[in-house]
Specification:
Layout lengths: L9 H8 L6 H16 L5 H28 L21 H26 L1 H18 L11 H22 L5 H23 L1 H6 L5 H5 L1 H24 L14 H10 L6 H31 L1
Length: 303
Amino acid sequence: MNATNPERSVFAEWFWLARPFSLTAAAVPVIFGAVLALKDSVFAPLPMLAMLFGSLFIQAATNMFNEFYDEQRGLDVAGAVGIAGSIVGGRMHARTVLVGALFCYTVALVFGVYLIFAGGWPILVLGCLSALGGYLYSAGPRPIAYTPASELAVFLFMGVLIVVITYAVQARAFPLYVPFTALPFGGPVAAILLANNIRDMESDRRGGRRTVPIVFGRKFAIWFYRALLVEAYAAVAALIFFGVVPWSAGMVVLSLPLAAKAWRSISSSTRPDRLDPVVKATAGVHLTFGLLYAAGVLAGSLV
């Protein structure tokens, strides 16, 4: 049990610090990488599962590091919207949050060691790069999360690289088409972060952050958010046109109503409490779009 709230265990608090709604951002690209491997007859269940759990723990650790360092820098205050509030709410000591992040990284490392044996030395390089990116996102002298480059970093790491690694640990290599098929994931996952940054614009400005909405303004950020949503569907259309993915991948259009609702909602208010549901809705777009995309590619491979 934690010292300040005996009603909730440390592990339960760590669970909420991991931000469960955001963990699908790590899981769905892994599922898609597994679908590509299955399509190419190189599917390997154990490496895939190790990649899935390793990715989930790295994502959880990144969220915990974000909570820890934001509180240390004075960005998180009591009553703030969109945070777990474990530290500022007095439910957990800051060092316990840090221990939770390091614990998640340690577990991810165990899975990572297995993946290195399964996929070879390239996985060591790519895995270390992913872990380092997760740490530098919130830590270090100039955290990526505090700069306008955060959406680009998430696009590359959580949109493309995670799919490439998932495929590579199963096939011990990857053809050039794999990163191209991963491009549709980049827009929605970066949009989750951007919606978060639009919501937190005023508190981030007070805390010295230089995110996209602060550097370029709210109107540009809303435009950029919508462009990231469009990127997902446009990328799938282009991939179908060039024959990289089957026409059945077009079933992603079934997620358009969710994307359209998020498109409208992002400009509906400037209040953090009203924008917080938009962040979660964007995660829902990413989840639904990603599963439909994976199902469409899998269906095409079975025809």
